[in-house]
Design goal:
Blueprint lengths: L4 E4 L4 H12 L4 E5 L2 H8 L4 E4 L5 H8 L4 E4 L7 H14 L4 E5 L3 H4 L6 H14 L4 E7 L3 H4 L1 H8 L18 H13 L8 E3 L7 H12 L20 H14 L9 H6 L6 H16 L1
Parallel strand pairs: 1-2, 1-4, 2-3, 4-5, 5-6, 6-7
């Protein structure tokens, strides 16, 4: 029987997708989680559950014992570097052969010093290069599931869309494509030899999104005029500061770059913003019906 793949973050949005795809590929999956009851509710007996926390080194080693591959994902936090380095080190000690890490967006990492989140991910990437374990870092652009849902809700409730990034274009990527790339790298004979910068197939502005929403809803969708300045977020914690920096960088046009990594790896184009919006409204209509 093959060794299980350890998935961290399995109860979150992306981790759920990765876990489900691995199970569809008949892979043994072990999930490392602080919420074993949530993992059991999501996946039942199809996965092995390893309760624990990144800060608990014993639980990390127990979770990684007998595994060969690690999917490394953790939330934006001040402890991200320490936690992910600990997980990578434990994987190496326990005989792991591959790490697939979800990193920050490329524009948060390069150049350094513009994003506290990007700098944290860069530190982990640098550490991985020093380990004798095969690894790849995936740098996804802005996620549709995170960035567009509030915009869709504004349109559904008749509000004018908030152009929080001004006229900047963004090559949004669907979390399902991120999961597909991650699973590809977990199961491929070899991983890519450099970070994978993955984006959607086009960069769109808020006015482009308004046009798509207008066609779906069959009515005009307004966009608030803005200077492109980013409204401050409440709170001063690490995550709040990181998200505020994301907004500033996106408004400056840093997230507009389009890459060909998804079609080159997977053999098909990434999902589009139009498809994401259309699917959202179709699912909403089905629930309402």
């Amino acid at each position: 029987m093959s060794a299980p793949i350890l998935v961290t973050g399995a109860t979150g949005r992306l981790g759920q997708l990765v876990t489900a795809r691995l199970l569809e590929q008949n892979q043994r999956v072990r999930v490392f989680t602080r919420r074993p009851e949530a993992a059991r509710a999501l996946f039942g007996a199809r996965v092995e559950i390893a309760p624990g926390d990144f800060a608990d080194r014993d639980s990390l080693h127990k979770a990684l014992a007998g595994t060969r591959k690690l999917f490394l994902l953790s939330p934006i936090s001040e402890s991200l570097v320490e936690e992910q380095i600990a997980a990578a080190g434990a994987a190496a000690i326990e005989g792991g052969s591959r790490i697939v890490k979800i990193s920050g967006s490329d524009w948060t990492i390069d150049p350094p010093g513009v994003s506290i989140s990007g700098d944290a991910h860069a530190a982990v990437e640098w550490h991985l290069r020093g380990l004798s374990i095969e690894h790849v870092c995936i740098r996804p652009n802005a996620w549709m599931q995170v960035a567009l849902l509030n915009t869709i809700r504004q349109a559904m409730t008749g509000q004018v869309l908030n152009a929080r990034h001004g006229t900047a274009r963004v090559a949004y990527i669907d979390a399902r494509d991120i999961a597909d790339v991650a699973v590809h790298q977990l199961l491929a004979p070899r991983v890519a030899d450099k970070p994978l910068i993955i984006t959607g197939n086009e960069a769109v502005s808020i006015r482009d999104i308004a046009g798509i929403l207008a066609r779906v809803l069959h009515r005009p969708i307004g966009v608030a005029e803005t200077s492109g300045s980013v409204a401050p977020l409440l709170g001063d914690g690490f995550e709040h500061r990181a998200v505020a920096q994301f907004g500033t960088l996106i408004a400056a046009g840093r997230a507009a770059t389009v890459t060909r990594v998804v079609p080159e790896l997977l053999g098909h184009a990434p999902r589009t913003v139009k498809a994401f919006i259309t699917e959202h409204f179709a699912a909403d209509a089905a629930l309402a019906g």
